[in-house]
Amino acid sequence: MPLIVPPSLTDEDGALTQACEDALVAIFEKYDVDKDGALSNAELDAFAKDTNGDVFDEDTRTEITEFLDLDDKGQLTKKGFLQMYNLQTSSEPEETWKDLQKHGYDSSLKLVASRSEDGDNSANKSS
Ligand SMILES: [Ca+2]
């Protein structure tokens, strides 16, 4: 595989770039099946399986509930999801790239994988 230099996922302050955040939010919303703005255990499991091939282990779960933003039901919020990726990206950007590619994004953060989203974008998201 040729060595490509993808755009940075973080800015000078270590925050996720807008393009990166947009991609992650889209992934988050894909797995937030009931659209309550947070990932339940089942939703998080589905995400982890698609991303890593397996559900998060106990340690990772503990870290998530200990360090990341949760809603009052203990579910990982969108903010927490972005926090998780901010942490990972600052230490291991290549891991985040791997995850993004897994979810169909190319090295310029464009969604390239074909998804069945015909008629699936009618949801009116007004937060
Ligand atoms: Ca949810």
From TrEMBL:
One of its GO terms (biological process) is positive regulation of protein localization to ciliary membrane. It is found in: Membrane. Its main location: membrane. Keywords: Calcium, Membrane, Metal-binding, Repeat. One of its GO terms (cellular component) is ciliary membrane. One of its GO terms (molecular function) is calcium ion binding. PROSITE patterns: EF_HAND_1, EF_HAND_2. Residues 19-54 form the EF-hand domain. This is EF-hand domain-containing protein.
